[in-house]
Amino acid sequence: MSFWHKFVQAAASTRAGAWFIVNVLFRLDGALLKISGGRVFLAMGWDMLLLTTTGAKSGKPRTIPLLYIVDEKNIVLIASNGGREKFPAWYWNLRAHPHAVILAKGRSGNYFAREAKDSERARLWKKAVGYFGGYALYEKRVTTREIPVMVLTPKER
Fold this sequence. Notes:
This protein is α+β, with helices and mostly antiparallel strands.
């Protein structure tokens, strides 16, 4: 594991570090991803995408940059919210309106979201923690909820 990966995972293990990553670095990544068509971002070594959902309450488009992993043709998102007790807004948006638009290097398009359950969730969670160890730290910090694993399947044209 590179120095950068170790540094980011150590920072992400603290509440302040997770807040900074979610509220500052990811916002910068959002702008870079948009400008570059999904090719350039700050999370060196981890894949980032722009997720556009429909607001659960507002009905307006909402876009956020997120880490993701790939599972065959699907994109997998972890609704960790940086280890906070609250679910992230994008999770509620996908629950209310499962259609999503993804902007990512080589994977842009329309997707349909669903929450992974049982053995599928366990398998994908293990894969996600292997990709970004910070998820394991978030799981220890969160005590009032299970961190959801969302599976986004490309919509056929």
